DNA sequence: ATATTTATTTTGGCTGTCAAAAAAATAATC
DNA sequence: GATTATTTTTTTGACAGCCAAAATAAATAT
């Protein structure tokens, strides 16, 4: 017979109701105006009917709202490339596109090698860019501010808009950045910590500013301009000095519970493993980052009497591996295996639709080798399910700035259109 | 001078526009009616003014909509507990609460030990429950359907609603479940694979059905009835036969890119590590799951001549560890260390506001020991940031069914209120 | 009793959205 | 070349939803 049992500890939950508690009214709902504007920008050029079909708004609403957006100078009519689909009968559609001069935004990336900036119009098109060498030393907040100012100015000059006041500026840098508060909690090349950089920049540059972690910028670059545009969710993993990750969930960048970046570099791939610069052992970064490879190269290449720079050392190690030096090869191959474990864990935990690998070209041959990808596939093999695709995406040096540009674009759109 | 460089590969992206591409009009927007209903349920009992303040709708709208909801028989007025805050001057507020008889839903959990069900009213209150032993053998789809029917009937009987037609039923089971398609891709105790169980159940039980992975149910139980109600995001990790995880992001259960559960159990904690039943090596599960412990117990306890059940063996191992048997202790302590690595990786990657540990009481002493939690803290230590809280949450056996109840409640709400 | 305070309802109006009809602009057909 | 078919876009009129402000209700304080 039925062995019915009551669960007494649950019975007592009555006073408070049930269901998720929402802290504030959901602010993520965009106005029709903004939705349509963004759909126009996403499409490049699109007819009113297609807009209606894509967004679900009625043709009447699209006509009205687009008239409104045109009157505001935000979009304009344009020719539409001939669509060969059905004969071409009927009234030909007229395209809508973002009016380029509706706004200007700037995306900036500050790093320990070079600073760069892109200048974009409100349609997301590149108006100009600039790259300036960055000092290799630790820098004060004041220096960072000046560098930001310089690179912004150089970018505007290249775009032929000297002295223009951008509608939004976004700046990315490595380290721990609290996006919501606009503070740099820690940055590898900054002397000070916990700096309210966003507000300082805002005051200095006379434009609204957002700051973010550079790994997030990569994800934004893919989401806005690259592979990720059509995907519900994906992860971008980048190997530079550290190992970073940006995660897009449901078409939006996910910044984690505390508002900081996702730190794949410090996931543990080995219990009691190699020492990481964070002080812990077994971090992925301690196996695949620059300094980890250099550390091993130091031993393997027997270069301890010289004192070459880290970059040179890495270069040498890389060359030797390519020439067939077994020791040098094992260094890369071990790093590669651990990288595969790290990637596999991301796949297993998040199950993203795609993983994009990004970073310095130097590393492609070894760390992004087919061997690593195949090991990742092995480690995540699930019967009956296709393996998560892992792609290597090589961009130019301006990706980061481009991602920052996307962030700025998003911000400016809210201000100008919303 | 400025070392300006153009990035040619980007210049050529013009045709397609930029920004995320949204596949379909965002369907996640709820009607005012439903938002207010859910706010009432979340609060338990709440005045119209408080409702207005919480949801951001004007008092006028709240009055109108609540009148509408009352007319539909979904909510009703109620007394409000005296609020001592300010003197108690002015017109006393009138409470609103969900009308209990507005609907009935059932949450069901099928497992390899016992099946259970809870019957809830639309306010989320427990009307009745039932638990029936489950056969330890592999079961056919037909058997699962019959068991589901039985446990639903037993639940309704316990709730004194024999023969009632529930407004929604949700069912959870271990394994791989495709929520969106309503299919069981694989379940440890089912003979067949890739079964459209949702639709089969729907036909059999005559009510709308949803099915989900049991780890997700735990997360839903916490989100609706437990610790997670007030949190933006959190993870629930459960150790049973396998190791599962449910992840709540932004007040919503995240089901992963492919729609399946997050599989923390198969994250790799050791390169070339212990063999897992999934065929791979180094999975967390291969160190902390039942069968892993039993495997080691087999060696340690020197019981190979007998043939005790896995449960008995675990019990023996546990007792011996408690009595001070060093070998038995090392088994648990190693498992604990790997669990710490697994948890640390979740913290590092997701940065959730809270991690809840859930599972069988038996395991609390060793796998959920303070030692493990402290190791997790060590492995995730970030200077300047407080450690991610990890809590052990002990529920009764009905948690899973309760989580399924939440899922059913959500479904029924949409149908009845939306 | 009267003033004060807080909650709720009523009123009137505004905004956004849509369905349906009309208009516009083309190709196909006779 | 006129007519018809087809597709896009605009116009029209109406309705739903939400709100601000005023009015009403129900209590406490004086």
From TrEMBL, chains A, B:
Residue ranges of coiled coil: none
Span list, region Disordered: 1-29, 75-96
Name of the protein described by the UniProt record: Putative NBD/HSP70 family sugar kinase
Superkingdom: Bacteria
This protein's UniProt keywords: Kinase, Transferase
Biased composition, class Polar residues, residue ranges: 1-15
Gene3D superfamilies xref list: 3.30.420.40, Winged helix-like DNA-binding domain superfamily/Winged helix DNA-binding domain
A Gene Ontology molecular function term of the record: kinase activity
């Amino acid at each position: 017979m039925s062995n019915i049992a009551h669960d007494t500890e649950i019975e007592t939950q009555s006073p408070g109701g049930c269901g998720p508690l929402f802290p504030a009214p959901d602010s993520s709902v965009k106005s029709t105006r903004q939705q349509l504007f963004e759909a126009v920008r996403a499409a490049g050029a699109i007819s009113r009917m297609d807009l209606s079909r894509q967004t679900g708004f009625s043709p009447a609403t699209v006509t009205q709202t687009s008239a409104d957006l045109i009157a505001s100078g935000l979009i304009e009519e344009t020719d539409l490339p001939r669509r060969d689909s059905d004969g071409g009968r009927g009234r030909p559609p007229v395209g809508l596109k973002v009016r380029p001069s509706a706004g200007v935004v700037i995306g900036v990336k500050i790093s320990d090698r070079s600073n760069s900036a892109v200048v974009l119009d409100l349609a997301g098109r590149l108006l100009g860019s600039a790259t300036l060498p960055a000092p290799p030393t630790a820098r004060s907040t004041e220096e960072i501010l000046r560098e930001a100012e310089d690179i912004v100015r150089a970018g505007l000059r290249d775009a032929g808009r000297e002295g223009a006041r951008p509608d939004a500026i976004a700046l990315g840098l490595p380290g721990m950045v609290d996006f919501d508060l606009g503070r740099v909690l820690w940055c590898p090349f900054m002397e000070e910590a916990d700096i309210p950089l966003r507000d300082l920049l805002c005051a200095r540059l006379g434009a609204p500013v957002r700051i973010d972690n550079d790994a997030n910028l990569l994800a934004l670059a893919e989401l806005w301009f690259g592979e990720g545009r059509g995907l519900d969710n994906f992860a971008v993993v980048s190997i530079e000095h550290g190992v970073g990750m940006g995660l897009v969930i449901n078409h939006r960048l996910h910044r984690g519970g505390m508002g900081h970046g996702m730190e794949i570099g410090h996931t543990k791939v080995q219990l009691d493993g190699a020492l990481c610069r964070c002080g812990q052992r077994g971090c992925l970064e301690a196996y695949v980052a620059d300094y980890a490879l250099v550390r091993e190269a130091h031993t393997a290449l027997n270069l301890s009497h010289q004192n070459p720079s880290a970059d040179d050392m890495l270069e040498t190690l890389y060359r030797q591996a390519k020439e067939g030096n077994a020791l040098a090869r094992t260094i890369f191959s071990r790093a590669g295996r651990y990288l595969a474990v790290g990637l596999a864990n991301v796949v297993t935990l998040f199950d993203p639709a795609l993983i994009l690998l990004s970073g310095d070209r130097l590393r492609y041959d070894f760390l992004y080798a087919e061997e690593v990808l195949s090991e990742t596939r092995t480690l995540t093999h699930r019967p009956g399910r296709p393996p998560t695709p892992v792609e290597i995406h090589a961009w130019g040096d301006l990706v980061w700035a481009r991602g920052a540009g996307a962030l700025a674009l998003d911000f400016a759109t809210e201000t100008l259109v919303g």
